[in-house]
Amino acid sequence: MEIALIKLLLAHILGDFFLQPNSWVTEKERIKLKSAKLYLHVALHVALVFILFFSLEVWKQALIIGVTHYAIDAAKLLFQKTKTKRIWFFADQALHIAVIVACWLGFYDGTTIDLGFAQNPKVWLYIFGGLLLTSPTAIIIKVLINRFIPSKGTISLQNAGKFIGILERLLIYIFVLTNHLEAVGFLLAAKSIFRFGDLKEGSELKLTEYVLIGTLLSFGIAVAVSLGITFINS
């Protein structure tokens, strides 16, 4: 895969998932286009393009990404409803990625400045794959299984499930890249043992199904991304 496309995608997931606090999202949804965080968020995406390419020659891509990012996010804020948040989330991400691909196809001429290992596309692809399996995947899984959350609350550490999922996906990523697929089975078995007591004591079918859906989604996405990265780099 072309290194420029990987850098553009990397800039996107950094700006949308890692460098955008929940407080920004809350403020944008509350006061919409009047939120200063919306404009700061767009400016951050533009800055990330320049930082990752380490060149001012990508100003066209940065400008297009900034303008379209604002337009897409503004439309999402203005038109999404509580019931359509899931649809708007995926539509929003699909449009951003489409713009990124268009920028790459239409403008990139290979004149960026890179140093040392940064010249190797595989390095950027490994970084992209690893980051994709952390917060972005956690948010995607949350959006997908939000409707299945049991009505009765359970006691657990704040954000514990999110971080457990991130750690397990990163471990699967490492296992697949290092050709230790058998370790994935051990990881799944270990998690099942730890979760068995909670599910048995809870004795709730809904909770059991919710945990199984989340676990299988997490493992499935991690394996798919890992195998995809391995195939591309082969």
Describe the fold and architecture:
By secondary structure, the chain is mainly α. Helices cover 77% and strands 0% of the residues. It has ten helices and no strands. Helix 1 runs antiparallel to helix 3 (36-53) and helix 7 (135-145) packs across helix 10. The protein is flat and about 50 Å long. It holds the Pfam family DUF3307. InterPro entries: Phage_phiKZ_Orf197. This is DUF3307 domain-containing protein. Keywords: Membrane, Transmembrane, Transmembrane helix.
Question: Which short descriptors sum up this protein?
Answer:
mainly alpha, Phage_phiKZ_Orf197, transmembrane, transmembrane helix, DUF3307 domain-containing protein, membrane
Q: Summed up, what is this model?
A:
With 234 residues, this protein is mainly α. It has helices spanning 3-18, 22-31, 36-53, 59-79, 85-107, 121-132, 135-145, 160-177, 181-202, 205-233. It has two domains: 3-115, no CATH class; 144-233, no CATH class.
Mean pLDDT: 84
**Count of all domains:** 2
Helix content: over 70%
The number of distinct β-strands equals 0
Number of helices: 10
String of helices and strands = HHHHHHHHHH
Shape: flat
What distance separates the N and C termini? Answer: 11 Å
The main β sheet shows up as:
none
Radius of gyration: 20 Å
Provide the low-confidence segments as ranges. Answer: none
The percentage of residues in β strands lies in under 5%
Structural class: mainly alpha
